[in-house]
Amino acid sequence: MHQPIRPQWICAGCGVPWPCRTRKRQLVAEFTGARVSLILHLSAYLVQACEDLPHTPSGVLHARFLAWHRSPALHNE
């Protein structure tokens, strides 16, 4: 349900920028013990988002698609 609507990259489930907080928690659970696989998975989304959102600064997309996985809050909920 919390999948991206492209090319805007909005969450189909809650209407916020994707990945939303719910999807982030789901991804952390799906990739427990497989951090490198999670990063590779998210990197593929980042590449697609760069193509769909060419006017969005790369740093913003990096934070949105990759940097969040280090947040302790997502791993402790």
Structure notes:
The chain is mainly alpha-helical and 77 residues long. The chain has one domain. It is built from four helices and two strands; from the N terminus they run E-E-H-H-H-H. Strands 1-2 form a two-stranded antiparallel ribbon. Strand 1 and strand 2 form a beta hairpin.
Structure in a nutshell:
The chain has one domain. Helix content is 53%, strand content 5%. The chain is built from four helices and two strands; from the N terminus they run E-E-H-H-H-H.
What topology emerges from the helices and strands here?
Elements: E1 4-5, E2 10-11, H1 21-30, H2 35-52, H3 58-65, H4 72-76
Features:
about 80 residues; mainly alpha; two-stranded antiparallel ribbon
Number of helices: 4
Widest sheet: strand order? 1-2
Mean pLDDT: 91
Radius of gyration: 12 Å
Q: Count the strands?
A: 2
